[in-house]
Amino acid sequence: MQIGPYQLTNQLIVAPMAGVTDQAFRNLCLRYGAAMAVSEMLSSNPELWDTDKSRQRMSHSGEEGLRSVQIAGADPDDMAWAARYNVEQGAQIIDINMGCPAKKVNKKLAGSALLQSPELVQRILDAVVAAVDVPVTLKIRTGWDPEHRNGVQIAQIAEESGITALAVHGRTRQDLFKGEAEYDTIKAIKQNVSIPVIANGDITSPEKARFVLDYTGVDALMVGRGAQGRPWIFKEIQHYLDTGSLPAPVDNAEKRQVMLEHLSKLYDLYGEYKGIRFARKHIGWYLNQEEQRQFRAEFNQLESAAEQCSMVEHYFDECVLDKLRAETNV
What we know:
By secondary structure, this protein is α/β, with parallel strands linked by helices. The protein has 12 helices and 11 strands.
């Protein structure tokens, strides 16, 4: 798939997720085969930029792939200014958020709340596209609620405004992340616009990825929650798309290496104090539900990077011993 001058190496993109898709996570996913990873959402309000969180999200030092930066807001002028500023900071693609369902975003009439106002959507898109000389992409939901799925209308506005690619999450704002994503609206959107369309929502396995591509006819897939604690899902999906067969599961030795690398990158990115706290949720995602209950209660009490790394090491040492015990008892 092509976005402006950029030819992606495959059809797999990492979805932007606030508090999740920081640079450490993005780079892991890219290394496992994602063609692009979109940054965490940045507010278009410059008064909110003078914080450690915003400064980290705006920094592109050490970025391994295309620098796609997502911005959110409801004022066309502010959004245009934010787009220009981020391009000056190194963004190669500007992505506009009109899909976030969070109350704190929607109450400011940003995120998916904008889907209720097609005229404002057009003003924002026109302003941002005119403000920068890099590709501008857009992420939306299928509508505000199931009775008002206006995704096709918004997609047509996006195409008219010069948006170069459109990602669609297969839920309305009212759905939040409940129930199952629906792909009929995404299919209809793809049939009604000529710009690249990217399907998002509940893509949690290679088989589901194949189904969504075939059913909707989209140009690419965007994986979000399916990659949490599983950055190798992009490698798994690509293998399945290429061969029609599932790859061998990631073994414990590789999981161990990835988890320890992820911890190290979090400490480097945030410093030890904040890195420890971000690590708690990420490490929990790498484990299944039964393991989480046994592991997380203790892990979440740890207050040093050394203790966290040691506990991960110990966990995998125990996995090796358990395997040896099982083989001995056969």
